Amino acid sequence: MIRFLKKTFVITELEVRKIFHDPTEIFTRAVQPALWLLIFGQVFQRMHPMSGNMRYIDFMTPGILAQSVLFIAIFYGIGIIWERDLGLTHKFLVTPTPRAALVLGKALSAGLRSVPVMIIIYLLAFLLNVKLNWSPLSIFTVLLIVILGSVLFSTFSLIIACLVKTRERFMGIGQLLTMPLFFASNAIYPIDVMPHWLQVLSRLNPLTYMVNALRICMLNTEPPVNLVYNIGILIVVSAVMIMIGGVLYKRVIV
Amino acid sequence: MGFIVETLELTKQFGRFVALDHLNISLEEGGIFALLGPNGAGKTTAIKLLTTLLVPTSGDALIDGISIVKHPFKVRRLIGYVPQMISVDGTLTGYENLLLFAKLYDIPSKEAKRRVLESLEFMNLTDHARKAVKTYSGGMIRRLEIAQSMLHRPKVLFLDEPTTGLDPIGVKAVWQHILELKQQFSTTILLTTHVMEEADKLADHVAFLSRGKLAAIGTPKELKSSLKKENVTMEDVFIQYAQESAENERDFHEAARERKTTSRLG
Predict the structure, then answer these.
(1) Model ipTM?
(2) Residue B237, min C-alpha distance to chain A (Å)
(3) What is the pTM of this model?
(4) How far is Cα B101 from Cα B79, in angstroms, rounded to an integer?
């Protein structure tokens, strides 16, 4: 078990060092959430508040954070295909590293990629006077949820990459999945205002649970103990994804 | 005295296409073995099977007595592999590429560092160790990849077209290092190549694959004399034993891949 974790962290270290050598991508991807918060949030503020007693901008900020994490993680699979084309994947598959460690190591590094986005959103929230829970405990828990969500969606992305194998097919499917995942969730509107069929879909969408967990942490909407249920679901789904990813990873090279 | 690598009716089929047809070869420890043949003959498939990247359709192979089918994980500890394509990360430095890889083989930290520095020295890359690999020339990248594959002192090293896309200086350097590896570590080396001179110069034994089947096997000397002609070169041997197999699209993909590697290394 210890060797498994050791090797997982070697993979993560490798990916993180790559980021340090070339960090520009991290910052360019952080722009989108900024736009959402600033423009979208400000406009919807003025409409009939569907978020009940809460100000809409408060309501949507955790949703935007989750959405940004999703959008960054879901295209992670392109990197997997790129590595396969280069020959790096082959090299790693020939080492005595458990496949699941390769997958988990990469997923964790994807998690770390979301940290700059989280920083930018908190920064914007501060400037826009969003009423967030600014306590260190809250922020730390949010960090964990963000990393967990990244792990989940980037592994999902890896699985897709292993199944479709080419860049063109991946981009097609990536575009196809991101919007439904985002809109069939409670990121920008509460579940109660959705039509019944959409509510059902949202309850099956891991993003919804991530958003719930973030709302509890960032806005104190519910007692913290309710976090357990939502985070628990994220952990279970992530674990299943990683196991599936471990089995499918070698398919990307055939 | 057993063989370090033994294939037993090793077969790989993709749908109806038989890439490798009941291959039976045995390699003695410490030698350099060249696998030759035209594109599509099954060389890369053979290497991918032996390095556990692919699972055989039928048959098996034993690396140091361990089955690739039953214990692929154990086999991976014993082998090193340098694929035809680039397998080091361009954004990291040579040192980082080597050190992180060493850690994947459970080499203790201090020993790992020592081996990394030693192999950088061995491959004449010490001056460039802390620079990003994307600044390296094609020959340097290859030498780094070979160094990386030797860190865990594998019993068998698989090299898939090690000098593709290199200029003559790069080629000579890689040849020299392969021979030094054999001397210093007694590693058994299995390489595939299109360059007949390479097979002639480096290999103790040569096997020809054609359309997935073993067409000929022996020492370069034996194969040349089997042609019963004067002034025979390995090219003549190749022409004699290899048949063009242009019937399937794998040729296109292989040619495309080879040109991609060439353009990246050149």
Answers:
(1) 0.84
(2) 31
(3) 0.86
(4) 14
